Amino acid sequence: MTNHWSDLQNTDCALIMGGNPAENHPISFRWLTKAQEKGGKIVSVDPRFTRTSSKADVYAQLRSGTDIAFMGGMIKYAIDNELYHKDYVVNYTNAPFILKEDYKFNDGLFSGYDEATRKYDRTTWAFETNEDGTPKQDKTLKHPRSVFQLMKQHYNRYDVDTVISVTGTPKNDYLKVCETFCATGQVGKSGTIMYAMGTTQHTVGSQNVRAFGMIQLLLGNIGLPGGGINAMRGESNVQGSTDFALLHHLLPGYVGTPTAKPQHATLADYNANETPAAGYWSNKPKFLVSMLKAWYGDNATKANDFAYDYLPKGNKNYSHINLFKAMYEGKIEGTFLFGTNPVVGGPNAGKEKEALSNLKWLVAVDLWETESAAFWQKEAGGNPAEINTEVFLLPAASSYEKDGSVSNSSRWMQYRWKAIEPKGDSLADLEIIHVLVQKLKELYKNENTAAARPFNALSWNFGEGHHPDIDLVCKEINGYDLKTGKLLPTFGALMDDGTTSSGNWIYTGFYPEEGKNRAKNRDNVDTGGGNYLNWAFAWPANRRILYNRASADLNGKPWSKEKAVIWWDAAQAKWVGNDVPDFVPIKAPSDPGGNNPFIMLKDGVGGLFAPLNEGPFPEHYEPFESPASNVFSSQELNPAVEIHEGDFNLKGDASKYPIVATTYRVTEHWQSGSMTRNQEWLSELVGHMFIELSEELAKEKGIKNKDKVIVSTARGEITAYAMVTKRFKPFIIKGEKVHHIGMPWHFGYKGYATGDTANHLTPHIGDANTTIPEYKAFLCNVRRAD
Amino acid sequence: MVEINLNRRQFLKLSGATAATLAVVELGFNEKEAYAKSKELKIARATVTPTICCFCGVGCGILVHTKDNTVVYTEGDPDSPVNEGTLCSKGTTIRQVYTSEKRLTKPLYRAPGSDKWEEKDWEWMYKTIAQRTKETRDKTFVEKENGFTVNKTEAIASLGGAALDNEETYLLAKMMRGLGVVYLEHQARI
Ligand code: SF4
Questions:
Q1: Which one, A113, B50, B87, B158, has least CB within 10 Å?
Q2: How many CB pairs below 8 A link A and B?
Q3: What are the structural domains of chain A?
Q4: Do B83 and B129 belong together in one domain?
Q5: What are the pLDDT digits (tens) for A434-466?
Q6: Shortest distance, CA B144 to any CA of chain A (angstroms)
Q7: Ligand 1, atom 4, residue with closest C-alpha
């Protein structure tokens, strides 16, 4: 989230799309209710009339997978009706930048596409530059090749009638959404966009988010209280675990992993090719070298590139789908699962279960016997005698049986104290990881092989005993001044010469001095604006509203007093206000760069034009499986997604599977259900797998409420109870009726509440940038079970 | 270690929250009776420890009441500016994460081809897992490839961690990268 939960009370309008916080982030909703009490509006856009929709002022339905058409139309609406915040757009975005002449867009493809590799050469997506390398600009926004004009031209095709023929939204509802949300373009108003996996789990997921970013920049909503783009995180620490880079393409603090290519051959090569000339990321070498010092200690020296060579360097996409494909093909021998259950939660889960049986060994660390740990059992559908995987199931302690911190969606790092000893013989993951490393170190200690050297060089100083000293872990994350041995107060102090260490630079400053772990802060006095600066620690640097420099105008004055966050105090010559400035605190608006609020970006302004793998502007493409052809171009599917051929990823056709399906969650269960289906009360509250379908579809199929029905896709079939409901309505897509169903994905065969697994239905295809699977839009058919 | 100081204002707020939560979750109880019961039997002399909900990313504060080495009660933390004492159904039932009979309490091992779990001690598990990891790693480790120093193994994968603490995810990333693992993924991807 750019903003945070309690800040939602400051919004004039919350557009909730691709998320259902009333159901899935229930307590967040009380802040929205507070906003509503003050006159704010809630707009809910969803294929189904959800619990959030029932609390909304405006609801509009859209077919799963058509968000870009929906938002593209809204961008056009804001431009045509001049509802955008002109001064903000001219000064704080790249709208005035001039693009090179060879940038082109035609029939769904941008210039530079190579069909054979399904990749773009981005050279033509560049700005014309002045002699000093800065982009040429036309602040009148009239230049035909300005970002503004090209954006306008791009979305001119997204007129209301075309848009709704794709999304299936009733026209009046669509216009009402545009009117209500675009009203936040007025000075003195702010609007927030809240989304979750309904936005990201598509082949165009990243561009869905980009479209949100564009409308928020146009309306001047970034950096303001009650504004921003707010991704609602589904797990207690999925924010933290992403910050700490449990992802193939990242190192802690969003530093990209080096890969096996000439541009990353040495530390100097990596720094030269991955460090932008301007913006805060120009400090990247300091973050990377300080991390290497935290990881390799005294073994990281200037002479050996700070052990840069020891970082593993891959040469392909190692993300979830590709990982399971490699496992399916027998290329992976051993796997660790830390509190995860892909046999229920992974896409095309039947195939992911089969893949596990190709492993030699599997280590599962969990509170429960999950479907994944037990994939070899007869109940899972296989023959144990034929499955040769060795399985180690380690009992883990629960969240309040150990000490540690988690970072919520608001980026607030909050400490959890140990309330009780771990149950039975279970142990904290911290201890399990620590002891495994100790044992491995013991095994490698006297070896000097190629495999031994990098591991032997890894520093591991968290105490001698079995249980590591968590304070030492915290301090290593924060980092030290290695000359004095003192903890670092801020990431501003990091160096690239090996004199500082930091395990994760974005967290530097959370432990600024001995005995002061700011995640433990519990002063709940509102320090202004609902920012609670003394409660917990928010990365980076305890900032609560990111890009808050953009809440003030070119003179450093808040755009309006209603939406003030920080402002320039000339007398004190610094930025003051009710949040930590997301800006150099003493840089005046009149200083060079003093009006560049987007400090992480090279040009210092928000990117209306910003290259991703499939283009610099979001463009509508149909999902992998779609009931209709694309009206915007002859490109059906996102031209940059990777398509896996063969039985690992079977594709269904609309003639056989005419119904659109999507998945979601309920309040009472959580993710793959292992944490909740193993509890009595929650299992009783929602005890069975069900699908929701419209009264119209039920009638056509002769299905009654509570009937058992079979849902089938090209990947498999599941049986579930039918919930016939008014919450789904048939869509009219290009004049034809299209049915849409939905279902929760929490179920499996373990625990108290059991049911078929929705992910047996979902496809193995992912977004072109993140490879997040397209769980949210696929084709199916439905029939009665008897 | 518990580092919470209940002042009088907080304590009064807590008692109020207790009554409200009980009324919601323990259906069938008379509210007054339940309140009295909780004061006298359940949480009297219990130790109170603040935690953060283990479920969604809202990060609600929860107070865990423990006594006689079990969890006797849990409730929303009235001091948290995130939830101000309120909880959803999952946060409300967090006590059962501890009390559920389905919790694993022993390390379990399944031999190749076997149809059952066997209990093993931690030491055996640690030792055997470390050996398997080393065998696979040593056999598949690549130091150089196409002229690049790569120091990786593509035969070991690590998945998961979105429910781990920050400190744990840090150690996990450090361990896996330190071993040369490139297939490192978790729930943020799915
Ligand atoms: S109590 Fe509910 S809303 Fe709060 S963090 Fe837990 S799951 Fe999320």
A1: A113
A2: 484
A3: 5-231 (3.40.228.10), 320-408+411-444 (3.40.50.740), 646-784 (2.40.40.20)
A4: no
A5: 999 999 999 999 999 999 999 999 999 999 889
A6: 9
A7: B60
